[in-house]
Amino acid sequence: MTTDNRSTLFSPLTLSTPDGTGLTLRNRTILSPMCQYAVNRQDGVATDWHLQHYGAIAAGGFGMLTIESTGVNPVGRISPYDLGMYSDEQESAHRHLVSFIHSQGAAAAVQLNHAGGRASGKPWLPGIHGGSAPLEEGGWQTVGMTDQSIAEGYRPTTKLDKAGIAQIVSDFAVAARRADAAGYDAIQIHAAHGYLLHQAFSPLINTRTDEYGGSFENRSRLICEVVDAIRAVWPGSKPLGIRISATDWVKGGLDIETTARLMRELVKHHGINWVDVSSGGLVNTPLQPSGPGFHAVLGAQMKQALADTDAVVSVVGGISSPEQAETMLRTHQVDAVSIGRAAMRNPHWPAMAAARLGVPREDIPAAAQYWRAEWNS
After folding, report:
1. What is the pLDDT of residues 320-334, one digit of tens each?
2. Can you name the residues that pair with 83 across neighbouring β-strands?
3. Residues tagged active-site
4. Domains in the chain: boundaries
5. What's the Rg (C-alpha) of the chain?
6. Buried b / exposed e across 97-108, counting CB within 10 Å, b at 16+?
7. Scanning 39, 192, 198, 350, which has its CA 20 to 30 A from the CA of 263?
8. What is the pLDDT of residues 69-113, one digit of tens each?
9. Global pTM?
10. Contact (Cβ atoms closer than 8 angstroms) between residue 81 and residue 37
């Protein structure tokens, strides 16, 4: 624990990189990726909504923004209204977002994802219930590790053969090249919340009997292949992160010990530098907790498991109180906090939090144009 009154939350944080240079964030607040379902043309290209949404949050003082789930190919998008990173037009729109984020002093990461059996979903917007989007509304046939329906209301997937798996691994690498060209400082691989890489790793869904199913090593294979393919093309001067569901909250599913074992392998031997801890999302269960900071214990367990590495561990889940976030960092439970819904409610959450934690007014990380907000009043 620190021995002075300076805020740990608003101290710099360096994410390690293979070449040793590292990426230093101005503070330890990270915007959690949150789908906006705002691509009304269904072409995966960022819109004015994305610019104003992420622009406001960048001006609000975050250390790094993680752009929402971005599909590595058309059938990997969570919904028809999600971002993509597989065309020149998409790459150009991402470059515009990154440029503005950088202009506000924040770093920019992008979450690359393939949603597997949870792709082609209806957007989570008012009045819309879950399940697959109809084909006439832009939906498509999904692919996955098995040929089952991944959740209620979703159409059964087409089981991926080895060639299909290899193509998806390649698509992740191509998307990573585009992310680099767009100027992103970091990538976060989405391996949580019931999407393809989580589906591959969890024994609840992955019932394959080939080299991609069964044992821990086989169920880890797809994640390892994706990480290796991205790291092979992603610059050594840039960190590579992963978001994981630490537990499925179901007997026979993933638990923190199993997930931590994989993270140690990825950090030590595959070039992962940042682990963002979440949970659940694969099956509905009453055992999944909620409430303020409900993943803090999982984050602390992951940080302990990676204590002999230089990986940064962040945690997401119900973090809205600056005091709570500060305590999580001062007690070394995690290295950074991922802020989601609180940032939607208040894009200037870091500026507010800094004022609450006694950061000097001149050091509050808000856009200069907002100095009259008098954050300390």
Report:
1. 999 999 999 999 999
2. 70
3. 195
4. 13-373
5. 20
6. bbebbeebbbbb
7. 350
8. 999 999 999 999 999 999 999 999 999 999 999 999 999 999 999
9. 0.96
10. yes
